[in-house]
Write a structure and sequence with these properties.
Mean pLDDT: 94
Helix content: 10-25%
CATH superfamily of one domain: 6-pyruvoyl tetrahydropterin synthase/QueD
Order of helices and strands: EEEEEHEEEEEHEE
Radius of gyration: 18 Å
Length: 159
């Protein structure tokens, strides 16, 4: 079994979020400098003695992370959060309502994700889903590190 690890300084993003715990409990809005790494496993090497050509894979990962960099990450599918787009007649903005909190952000600084909550675990899963087509013949792990000593991973078995 071969293992290839991709853990580059360029595979990072800086984002704000708040994790929701219940209908009236959530973290305060805050940010992290997230780092993402991949571990890919396979049984055989190709004719060039490579497990996988990582150039396209690294570029795909960078593209995902670039979309999240310097953004406020919001979960589209939270039952406790209401997200409203305002505009174009007004200043194009995103209004976010949670419990007794109300936020208004420039829409260009918001990234709504197909998640129920923005957590390290959910981000690792979402990255895994985004890369699935490139890694379908491999087992792989996506690791999202939000601070020193605090990270989550999602492992996907070869399909």
């Amino acid at each position: 079994m071969w293992t290839l690890k991709i853990c580059k300084d360029r595979h990072k993003f800086s984002s704000s979020h708040f994790t929701i715990f219940s209908k009236d409990s959530a973290e305060a809005l805050h940010g992290h400098n997230y780092y993402v790494s991949l571990e890919i496993e396979g049984e055989t090497l190709n004719d060039q003695e490579l497990l996988i050509d990582v150039v396209d894979l690294k570029n795909s990962l960078s593209k995902i992370l670039k979309n999240w960099d310097e953004k406020i990450l919001l979960p589209l599918h939270s039952k406790h959060l209401k997200i409203k787009e305002k505009g174009p007649n007004e200043e194009h903005s995103t209004e976010v309502l949670f419990s007794n909190r109300r936020y208004i952000f420039p829409s260009s600084e918001v990234e709504c994700l197909n998640l129920k909550n923005v957590t390290m675990e959910a981000l690792a899963f979402l990255i895994s889903e985004e890369l699935q087509h490139e890694l379908k013949s491999f087992s792989y792990r996506v690791v999202v590190k939000e601070s020193q000593g605090q990270e989550a991973s999602y492992y996907c078995k070869e399909s």
